[in-house]
Amino acid sequence: MLTSHENRAVAALLGAAFLFGATFVVVKSAVETMEPIAFVAWRFLLGGLVLLTLAVPKGKRIWGHGLLAGLALFAGYALQTAGLQFTSASNSALITGLYIVLTPFLAAALGKRLPTPWVMAAALGAFVGVALLTGIDDLSLNTGDLLTVGCALAFAVHIVILSRYARLHPVIPFTTVQILVTTALAFPASALLEGPISLPDSSTWPALAITALGVTAGAFLLQIWAQTIVGASTAAVVLAAEPAFGVATAWVVLGERLTTPGWLGAGLIVVAIYVVVTQQRDDSSRAAEAVTPAH
Length: 295
Fold this sequence. Notes:
Shape: globular
Structural class: mainly alpha
Radius of gyration: 19 Å
Low-confidence stretches: 286-295
Number of strands: 0
Distance between the termini: 20 Å
Order of helices and strands: HHHHHHHHHHH
Helix content: over 70%
């Protein structure tokens, strides 16, 4: 049974999952009037400035490791935001959630070992789910869905990088470096691909404020604090609710509706995510029983 402190941590993770999921709707609306990479640039600039008030990263090592993680984070958010121009918020939320399925495969490839049968079955189910959700015709994805698959892969790379380097650094300064690196990459990328940078107009500032303060700073800090109490495995299980929150918010705010095959595909993706995070939790528990706890 969870303690009251752990219950608060789980509640914080649910809050973070809701913020992550709900912002698909916010970003979907914002990129209708603002270039996507420019939106990422301003969003992460504001979030980075907030985090700098909490911690100033120091030392070459944290900046070197943070640069690697920031490259993957930038790729993930740039592809996700660009994809939202061409696909629905519901599809984006669910396809992004595939990073949880892709991560074990990437980690296994780098470790030169096969994933467990459960993970392989979950990946197959997730692939079928994406096919049903996106209405694949002749094995082709639309531009937005394809960009979002790339986003999921980038986020999987980001998680693998974090698994190697995050434990070596204080969490908040390391997160701050990643956000500043994303900012530093997004501005020139926007200028190169989208044209001259200009101040956002008044219609996009609310979306920037919500995503920068509520997610880039707020949700990440909720997640970081909670994981110091309940650990990464429990956090992964709770944060897997993000796609569901994304679909629900898109339903309520944008009136997006899934087709019957789409609902079946969404269900397969959610089940695949649950199987993977549960398998990871069980693997972590077995590993913890085999060694002296040091956390």
